[in-house]
């Protein structure tokens, strides 16, 4: 443990909290991670493992994802679990001419940032993925898209953090944030108070509830995603795939229209197909719905007719931590000393976990982060300050 190291409490044992704990502990920082349930019992244990570059908004979001991607190979070696990182390459399946035109524009923007991505016609797409329907119009392909096992990655971060003397507490719920003279001094939990110099809110879709404990409104909402798992069949997919509608639904729900919310498809090493996923605002309800499951199967069967040879064995749902602008909320909340946000990764938390942990640890240790965190600042959602230092409360919260 470093001398004079601050004591940092992280709330949440999902992929974000454990990645931050790992990156901090590696540098000898005194870290305590507090998780209400089990590690990966939130969204990080109820999701796909796509490390997709093509689904990220061109701009800071895609830049962050590309930097994150670079870190996965090192983690594969460094972490004690098999994170099953596979550079499979990825395809975005295009079903209509309108989608083709929209994707052409999108791809140009991605290429301008340096992403290796190209448009493919129907024949080239079917050469890559022979089991797709010949009715599709084409696809976009990037060799950089990859996949990973999100649970093994979360557990790997936590185990490696523990090895570096981080304290990982599970089954302990944070009930309140302790504050003295506008400075966070620790947390109150189900097993008592714990003092700290800094408190990091990495509570995923529940991060808004944690912020409310100190009267700060963070617009993070749970966005449910349902997933269908099939039995392990013969290998029919070589890449990870999403549909162009998925990108539309993610970045511009109006564009997705009535034709569905878009799908993602991946096949595990065992042969199970993981088909996802809905994007719904249903509060904290994690139940599957018949219409959600039917929609996923119907849309997948249209582009992947071979699905008829697979049987569904399981369904589950997770809650993505949604933010209004689709970007995570990372950094200190200026109105309360020592209160730091690290949440709101929506459908990208697995892909962005390595870079988030790295940048957050730099920031928490008072260093200048390798990538400027200003676009992700919590203050972008906070009311403007009056000249006397008080805050204008636009939401009345
Ligand atoms: C269906 C679906 C598919 C997805 N697919 C992908 C994908 O392919 N690629 C990708 O990159 N991302 C994907 N995601 C998104 C990804 O799962 C999330 O962005 C990521 O898991 C968020 O991690 P987190 O650590 O912020 O939150 P979580 O994993 O939810 O962790 C937060 C933790 O905080 C704990 N907590 C909350 N309140 C308290 C409290 N008071 N005290 C103590 N602990 C508390 C919770 O118990 C929880 O374990 C998907 C999500 C869903 C739902």
Walkthrough of the structure:
Helix 2 (60-78) crosses helix 10 (349-364). With 397 residues, the chain is α/β, with parallel strands linked by helices. It has ten helices and 19 strands. Residues 385-397 have low confidence and may be disordered. Helix 1 links the parallel strand 1 and strand 2. The protein folds into two domains: 7-45 and 151-220 and 325-381, 3-Layer(bba) Sandwich (FAD/NAD(P)-binding domain); 90-143 and 221-322, D-Amino Acid Oxidase, subunit A, domain 2 (D-Amino Acid Oxidase, Chain A, domain 2). It has helices at 15-25, 60-78, 97-113, 122-128, 150-163, 207-212, 244-251, 253-256, 290-303, 349-364, and strands at 7-11, 30-35, 50-51, 90-94, 118-121, 138-142, 146-147, 167-170, 174-180, 183-189, 192-195, 198-201, 221-232, 240-243, 264-267, 272-276, 312-322, 329-332, 339-343. Flavin-adenine dinucleotide binds next to helix 1, strand 2, strand 13, strand 17 and helix 10.
């Amino acid at each position: 443990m470093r001398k004079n190291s601050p004591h940092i409490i992280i709330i949440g044992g999902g992929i974000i909290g454990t990645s931050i704990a790992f990156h901090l502990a590696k540098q000898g920082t005194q870290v305590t991670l507090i998780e209400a349930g089990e590690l990966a019992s939130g969204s990080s244990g109820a999701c796909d493992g796509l490390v997709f570059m093509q689904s990220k908004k061109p701009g800071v979001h895609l830049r962050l994802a590309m930097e994150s991607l670079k870190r996965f190979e090192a983690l594969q070696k460094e972490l004690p679990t098999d994170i099953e990182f596979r550079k499979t390459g990825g395809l975005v399946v295009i079903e209509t001419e309108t989608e083709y035109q929209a994707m052409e524009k999108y791809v140009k923007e991605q290429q301008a940032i340096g992403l290796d991505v190209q448009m493919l016609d129907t024949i080239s797409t079917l050469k890559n993925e022979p089991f797709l329907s010949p009715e599709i119009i084409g696809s976009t392909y990037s060799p950089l898209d990859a996949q990973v096992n999100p649970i093994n990655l979360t557990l790997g971060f936590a185990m490696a953090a523990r090895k570096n003397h981080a304290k990982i507490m599970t089954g302990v719920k944070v009930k309140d944030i302790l504050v003295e003279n506008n400075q966070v001094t620790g947390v109150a939990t189900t097993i008592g108070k714990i003092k700290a110099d800094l408190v990091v809110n990495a509570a995923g879709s529940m991060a808004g509830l944690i912020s409310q404990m100190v009267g700060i409104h963070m617009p993070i909402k749970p966005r449910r995603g349902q997933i269908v798992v099939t039995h392990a069949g013969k290998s029919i997919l070589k890449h990870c795939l999403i549909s162009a509608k998925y990108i539309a639904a993610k970045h511009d729900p109006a564009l997705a229209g009535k034709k569905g919310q878009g799908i993602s498809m991946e096949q595990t090493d065992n042969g199970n197909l993981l088909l996802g996923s809905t994007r719904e605002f249903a509060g904290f309800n994690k139940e599957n719905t018949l219409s959600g499951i039917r929609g996923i199967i119907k849309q997948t069967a249209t582009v992947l007719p071979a699905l008829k040879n697979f049987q569904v064995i399981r369904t589950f749902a997770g809650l993505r931590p949604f933010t209004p602008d689709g970007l995570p909320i990372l950094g200190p909340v200026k109105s309360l000393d020592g209160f730091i946000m690290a949440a709101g990764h929506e459908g990208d938390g697995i892909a962005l976990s390595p870079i988030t942990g790295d940048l957050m640890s730099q920031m928490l240790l008072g260093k200048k982060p390798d990538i400027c965190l200003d676009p992700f600042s919590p203050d972008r959602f906070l009311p403007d300050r009056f000249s006397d230092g008080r805050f204008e409360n636009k939401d009345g919260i």
